[in-house]
Amino acid sequence: MPELPEVEALAADLAERLVGRTIRRVQIAEVAALKTYDPPIDALEGAVVTGTGRRGKHLVLDVTTADGNPLHLVIHLARSGWVRWRDAAPAPLKGRGRGPLAARIVLERAEGDEGIGGDGVDVTEQATQKRLAIHLVAHPDQVMTIATLGPEPLDDGFTEERFARILQQAGRAQIKGVLRDQRRIAGIGNAYSDEILHAARMSPFHPASMPAEEVHELYEALRRILGGAVERAKGVKASSLKAEKRQGMRVHGRNGEPCPVCGDAVRQVIYADSTFQYCPTCQTGGKPLADRVLSRLGVRR
C-alpha cells in the first residue's frame, strides 16, 4: 500500500509533469472507483492543473476549470493502486471494468510540443477487490477520509507531547493498530508501522498507553523512519517508488530473512487479510508471537 513517503514523492514527481498542463478529458474505466457526481467528472475538460499535494495517503491534484472554478481531484490509492505516467496518446478503452485501469487523464499538447498530445496519467489498481477511490470536490475536506484524518506525523506541530496524548487516549489498544489508525495519525500503514516498531524495539502488541521513556523512543523512531523514507524517495520517479520502498524495508516483507540488527530470523503474523513482520530478539524478548492463522490450524512454530 502506498504510504506517506511514497505519496509525497508521487505528488512531487507529478508536479513536474502536470502543473500548467491542460486536461483534455478524464475517462473513468472502473465506475465504482468514482465516489462523487457533483461536480461531474466532465468538469475537468479544459481544466488547468495548478498543483499537486498529499493528505495522509491521499493524492490531491488541484485544478482550475475552464470557467475559473477551483476543484480538487482526490485519489486514494488503497492497497494496490498506483499512478502511471503515459508518454503517448493512449489506445481507446475497450470497455469499463476490464483489467487494472481505473481512470485515465489525457492531456492537451504541451507548449512547444510538436506532437499531437495525449500524454497523461493512468490510475490503476492491481487487485481483485477494488478499493481505490476517486473524488472530485470543491475542497479536499469534503472527502470524509480526509476530514477525519489525524495530524501529519512529520509536521512541526506533531510534538512528542501531542503524540503522548494520542497514545494515552488509545489506552490498552495495541500500538500496531494505533499507528495505522488514520483518525489518530495520518499516513502510516502496515509497512512503516512495522519499521517504526522494529526501530523502537517494541512489540506490535504493546499497549498504546506506555511510560514516558517508551513514548520518547517510539516518537524518535517514528520521526526517524518516516523522515528517512521521505528523503530517500525525493527525486525518485513514480515508476521506481515501489521498488525503492521495498529496498528500504528492514523487517517488513522480509519474513525468514536475518534481522539487520541482531541476525535473528524475521517472523510474521497473519491476520484477517493482512500480515506484519517483526524480529523476536529485538522486539519481543526472543519470544515468537502466535500466528493466528497457524494457531487455528494447529500448527506449531
UniProtKB/TrEMBL annotation:
InterPro entries per the UniProt record, alphabetical: FPG_cat (IPR012319), FPG_N (IPR035937), H2TH_FPG (IPR015886), Ribosomal_uS13-like_H2TH (IPR010979), Znf_DNA_glyclase/AP_lyase (IPR000214)
UniProt similarity note: Belongs to the FPG family.
Residue stretches making up the Formamidopyrimidine-DNA glycosylase catalytic domain: 2-99
Keywords assigned by UniProt, alphabetized: DNA damage, DNA repair, DNA-binding, Glycosidase, Hydrolase, Lyase, Metal-binding, Multifunctional enzyme, Zinc, Zinc-finger
Domain FPG-type positions: 250-284
Catalytic activity: Hydrolysis of DNA containing ring-opened 7-methylguanine residues, releasing 2,6-diamino-4-hydroxy-5-(N-methyl)formamidopyrimidine
Superkingdom: Bacteria
Keyword Isomerase found: no
Keyword Zinc attributed: yes
Name of the protein in question: Formamidopyrimidine-DNA glycosylase
Pfam family name, one: Fapy_DNA_glyco
Source organism of the structure: Agrococcus terreus
